[in-house]
Design a protein that fits this description.
2 copies of one chain form a homodimer. The first copy, chain A, is an alpha/beta fold. In chain A, 54% of the residues lie in helices and 13% in strands. Chain A has 13 helices and 9 strands. The longest helix of chain A is centred in the middle third of the chain and has 29 residues. The radius of gyration of chain A is 20 Å and the shape is globular. Chain A starts with a strand and ends in an 8-residue tail after the last helix. At the A-B interface, helix 8, helix 9, helix 10, helix 11 and helix 12 of A face helix 8, helix 9, helix 10, helix 11 and helix 12 of B.
Chain lengths: 299, 299
């Protein structure tokens, strides 16, 4: 009934922007989310709502933008899973942050079924997702890249081609998340340390962003603290998940990662003390509380 | 005998570039270093060699580019110290990384003697020092800034004016060093973690420098690892010193800094295992050794 379309599962902060970017590029796009409200909103924005099974039978490209490996596995190989309902030659673009080994296993299972699996973690945040300007750290066979190209073109500004085997994309994503998480926690540590020495947060941002101590994350997140605005662009609870994945991979490789481990503790403390749903800059609240400081906007 | 000149003590990797930048700007510059070879070289490059006492009596602006607070104190208040030999109204530009409280104490002692003390830590590295394009994080009275201006103009591209009291400059420098040190260690942690997952160091630099995980230090230092080049632009041994200062200040403020502490351990391990005089990117050797990895250029 449906045909030659692109399907996407997971209409959250990243997936929704990717789905509307696909619509804007002229594709027929079927969206699925466990939240009916997300599907209603997507229909209003030019997409169609589809069951998981209908999405699979209707499309040659399927984009998975879910939270983790377990959800990715359920979408692909669960009771209503996509893999068994897809046409041979269809491309699966798997965007969740997962362990490289998981990506390799999925790719092998898909290959046995005649399907192309692109290991394709995403980076850039919800704003770039909505603009179709994500960075995608992708690995897979040439045939997989070819089959996935129409969707990649619509969703990404930059596609890093990291090799012809699944796993390499997820490896680079894990590396990026290690740094991004450590840099957010380091920014929070430095900003609050500065406050103990009389450095106002706004002055911190103004000066350090021009100095050797700057990072992409500092420039992006520190202004949230200055503004006292913890509306979640990316939430604290992403980090126990993603740094947990990094440390699981590291443990398997017998690799000690002390800074990553220290950063994880700070995000866990932020989540455990009730800030898990806030913007990840709220990790600064852990430091501030421990040092008896009031951040901007706090009474 | 000498008059209206600028004197500078400490002709090391930073101080030498600052001294020649002052010469290039047309100033008569007296240099002092405990290493006679550094003074000989400076004379060949257009400066003059002076004893500490002669430098003090000859100049209205004195620049101190030594290693730490103890050396700064010796230069100012030791047996041949500058303070007692300077004319009233002379400006002292103190560039070492020190605790804010130390800077406040020095400024107060100088003020009692009719001298201007500029708390003026520097950032930017030896290359920018040689070009007269440092960043200087400065605080002090308006009269101090006015008196120091001819030297600041010649040495700095950017002078951050951080308030009218000594200590604020050193506070911001400590914040910057916290971040810079953590970011170098995080870069090393991520680069070597990536290697365990098949991410080549060159690919790490290519991709991550375009992603949210990037930092100024990553872009500056990671190429040293890719090239296997540990010629010290800034050495490992800077970091036990500077992160130690940060943690001393933090301890006084009862501020817990877990990422800084973790980074310090890695730099101590790098220094303790014989890499203290190498470029600070050599902290990656600690991670590589612990994980059984060979970095580029290692046999």
């Amino acid at each position: 009934m449906l045909n030659n379309a692109i399907s996407i599962v997971g209409l959250g902060s990243m997936g929704y922007g990717m789905a509307t970017s696909l619509v804007r590029a002229g594709h027929v796009v079927h969206g699925f989310d466990i939240a009916p409200a997300a599907m209603d909103r997507f229909v209003a924005d030019g997409g169609t709502a589809a069951s998981l099974v209908d999405a699979a039978t209707a499309s040659d490209i399927l984009v998975i933008v879910v939270l983790n490996a377990a959800q990715t596995e359920a979408v692909l190989f669960g009771p209503d899973g996509w893999a068994k309902n897809l046409r041979k030659g269809a491309a699966i673009i798997a965007c969740a942050t997962v362990a490289p080994e998981f990506a390799r296993t999925c790719a092998a299972r898909c290959a046995e079924m005649g399907l192309h699996y692109l290991d394709a973690p995403i980076s850039g945040g919800a704003a770039k997702a909505a603009l179709g300007k994500l960075s995608i750290m992708a690995s897979g066979t040439q045939a997989t890249f070819d089959a996935a190209a129409p969707a990649l073109d619509a969703m990404a500004e930059t596609v890093f081609r990291l090799g012809d085997e699944a796993g390499s994309g997820s490896a680079m994503k894990a590396v990026n998340q290690l740094l991004a998480g450590v840099h957010i926690a380091a920014m929070a540590e430095a900003l609050t340390f500065g406050m103990t020495q009389g450095v106002a947060p706004a002055k911190f941002v103004e000066v350090i962003s021009q100095c050797a101590g700057t990072s992409w994350m500092l420039e992006n997140r520190a202004p949230h603290i200055v503004d006292g605005d913890y509306t979640p662009r990316s939430s604290v609870d992403i980090w126990p998940k993603d740094l947990g994945i990094v440390l699981d991979i590291a443990k398997s490789a017998k690799f000690g990662a002390p800074l990553t481990a220290a950063a994880l503790q700070q995000f866990l403390a932020a989540s455990g003390s009730g800030h898990g749903g806030e913007d990840d800059a709220a990790v600064a609240k852990v430091y501030a509380r421990n040092a008896g400081l009031k951040l901007p906007g706090e009474v």
